[in-house]
Amino acid sequence: MVIEVTDRYVRLACIQSGRLCHVDARSRDPREPLLKEIDIPKRFFSFEVILVIARREVIFKILDLPSGDADELRRMVDMQIASQVPFTKDEIEYGLDVLQTFEDGRSRVLVAVIEKEKAAWYFAAVQSRGLEVSRMIISSSALVNACLRSRPEIKDDRSCRAFVCVDEGHSELCFIFGGKMLFSKHFAVGFGGVMETDDPALAREVVRAIQTFVRDYPGTDPEDVIVAAPLRCRERFIAQLRALSGREIEPAADLPMPVFDGADQQKWNAHFESASAFAVLGAAGPQETSAINLLPAVKVEQEIFKKKRAFRNRFLISLLFASVSLAALLNSRPVRQQLYLAKLNERYEQIRPMLKGAQEAADLMNMVKERSRPRVHVVSLLNELFKLTPEDIVYRSVQMDAAGTLTLQGEARSGASVSLLQKNLVASRMFQDEMLRYATKRKRINDEVTEFQIACRVKF
After folding, report:
1. pLDDT at 191 over 70
2. What is the DSSP letter of 45?
């Protein structure tokens, strides 16, 4: 079962073994529950549920990191991601996909970030209808998946392709490289904006976005541009793109239509025509173009919440039972318990002076322990730092506060040296919680340097 959500509509398609069993679509009213008007027969509740959310809900970041190990990459992303987006680390969920690995050991990683509250809202909205979401993917990923199914010959091609999908109320530009979704961009203009005016605004924005991406990421110039759009605006939009870009523009191949097995074909034709079907059909089946799934962290949090609630309920019941038992015990007041309590009080009075002396001795030991805490050996610290620092890095400031936080500020001939220093600090046993505060390129007469500041904690 695929559920696609955009600003304007909600679409649902139940597909089993390539057969279309049920479809429904409704205009979306933000004031109403997400799936309130969607018809979902009970017999489909056991289907795997794939939730497709709009590209505009997600922030994409491409990071070049000095490692090829999956665990190290996740740790590096975890340290840097909060500085890349306008949210704190506690306010976001993210997923990542390794796009490329280079011969020098570096990796290029695509990170998708979504607000935690927004992801939880989508999950809860579907769950409120009695459905369990298994995957929460981005519309761009589904579109690229559909494009590669219609054009399998470019799946293993190492050249870059651009794929533009024009839908109702919005459009998306996706970059494909080596069978992977490299990046994408959302436009708040659909085929209505193409047909209602002679101004090629959407085509102009698409061309500008391609030029910007190629400038920022050399080597990604698309070999051609593939366009999926409704028939009534396809030729017009392709002509606009050709005139503005001078590139090779070609229409997307039609997707193989599923076999209708109980689904209303008229409803499909009305709501899933042409490009609109790409996201739904692309989401059904294996996601080969991107490993990003924004669901797991949300699902884990809900499972933790359920366990905490169950533990709290058990604790309250146990506390209630203990309170009732204690009240019954106190009301009985057996003579044997009173005698035992009297003996305990007598013994306490005997050992109370010794307890006072023991407490004073413990306080003295704590004071000695606090004052004799081991100090960081400055020579060892500088020696380790010297070993980890690349040759072209010059430190302008090395400071450490009372809490053991070491701040390194300096400059390097290249940004790669800063990345290498960060990788070395991550691998060192003497340092932990490394964080790159900034790395900025500056012009120096006829040269260029990278100024940086890195903070880490020294293990005592």
Report:
1. yes
2. T
Residue recorded with tokens 């909205």: 125
Q: Are 11 and 292 in contact (CB under 8 A)?
A: no
Quick one: residue 219, left, alpha or beta (phi over 0 = left, psi -120 to 50 = alpha)?
A: left
Question: In angstroms, what CA-CA distances link 260 with 89, 244, 352?
Answer: 46, 40, 86
With 0.85 as the threshold, say if the pTM is over it.
no
- pLDDT one-digit tens code per residue, 87-112: 888 888 888 999 888 888 889 999 99
Residue 422 CB contacts under 8 Å (≥ 6 apart), including other chains: 66, 76, 434, 436, 454
The residues pairing with 115 across neighbouring beta strands, listed in sequence order, are 92
Chain Cα centroid distance, residue 285: 21
Query: 378-458 in CATH: which number?
Result: 3.30.1360.100
Dist. CA 460–CA 445, nearest whole Å = 42
Q: Dihedral sign, CA of 18, 22, 24, 30?
A: negative
DSSP strand E in 139-245: where? 160-166, 171-177, 180-187, 225-228
Fold (CATH) for 2-294: Nucleotidyltransferase; domain 5 (3.30.420)
Tell me the average pLDDT across 290-300: 70
pLDDT in tens, 167-180: 888 899 999 988 88
Half-sphere exposure of 149 (CA within 13 A, CB side): 22
Per residue in 226-242, pLDDT (tens digit) is 998 888 888 899 999 99
> How far apart are alpha carbons 429 and 151 in whole angstroms?
49
